[in-house]
Amino acid sequence: MAVNHDNCPCMDSCPLNHALALIGGKWKMQILCSLYNNGPTRYNQLKKTLDGVSNTVLANALRELEEDGLVERQEYLEVPVRVEYRITEPCQRLIPILDELGNWSMEL
Amino acid sequence: MAVNHDNCPCMDSCPLNHALALIGGKWKMQILCSLYNNGPTRYNQLKKTLDGVSNTVLANALRELEEDGLVERQEYLEVPVRVEYRITEPCQRLIPILDELGNWSMEL
DNA sequence: CAGAATCCCAAGTGATACTG
DNA sequence: CAGTATCACTTGGGATTCTG
């Protein structure tokens, strides 16, 4: 069982901390959730959908998500430029887990 | 599916945000993890196990976890006083989910 | 259009000392 | 022993403006 690390502390090597680093923060899960539900989305559309995100935060979150392999960025060389974001396959496998987590939190 | 909220944004009512409020933060998952693995644990023992927590943070986290029904506090009227923390039954059901989440993050 | 740069604020975290 | 109080600090998040 992955949660078990002898006597704890899991500390730095804890898979859960790693997970939190990937999808923690105020907006990352919403971003993934939106991309999952709505499919590939342009930057400004995403910004409108996630009502209240600032550019700073959204851009940073997207870059981190991309670096971590959760999101793919595709740039279409049109004028004006068009950029779409979508979730990756490994990220797809995260969705059902998040789903369980959400259900659990609501039943609590 | 709980993750689906029409077009998103899940925003405030998002079950995932609720979950994050419960178990987010730097130490809460470690606390739950430790209590799960080691069983009922006294305050100072917990503090030693989670190497690096300050009193401020640990005490606050434990109080919140207790308010949210994830942790039970039991006070034994001995001299000196003894206080033990343990995870609750609803919290037990969270463990396998965290386990999946941890596994996912490591396989990524 | 898609972001980067800048600046600011609030919240979270932490170290230390102290007390019922 | 199990915390609380106080204060300092770091980080994340946000508003706004600007540019390739």
Note the main sheet of chain A: 3 strands, antiparallel
* Average predicted confidence as pLDDT of chain A: 90
CA gyration radius of chain A, whole angstroms: 16 Å
CATH architectural arrangement of chain A? Orthogonal Bundle
Q: By helix and strand content of chain A, what is the structural category? A: alpha+beta
CATH class of chain A: Mainly Alpha
Can you tell me the CATH superfamily of chain A?
A: Winged helix-like DNA-binding domain superfamily/Winged helix DNA-binding domain
How do the strands of the widest beta sheet of chain A line up side by side? Answer: 1-3-2
Q: Count of DSSP E strands of chain A?
A: 3
Number of continuous helical runs of chain A: 6
Would you mind describing this structure in some detail?
- The structure is a homodimer of 108-residue chains.
- Chain A has 108 residues and is α+β, with helices and mostly antiparallel strands.
- Chain A has a single domain (25-106), classed as Arc Repressor Mutant, subunit A (Orthogonal Bundle).
- Chain A is globular and about 50 Å long.
- Chain A has helices at residues 15-23, 28-38, 43-49, 55-67, 89-92, 95-107; strands spanning 41-42, 71-76, 82-87.
- Mean pLDDT of chain A is 90; it is low at 1-6.
- Chain A has 6 helices and 3 strands, in the order ααβααββαα.
- A 3-stranded antiparallel beta sheet of chain A has the order 1-3-2.
- Chain A is 53% helix and 13% strand.
- The structure holds a DNA duplex (20 and 20 nucleotides).
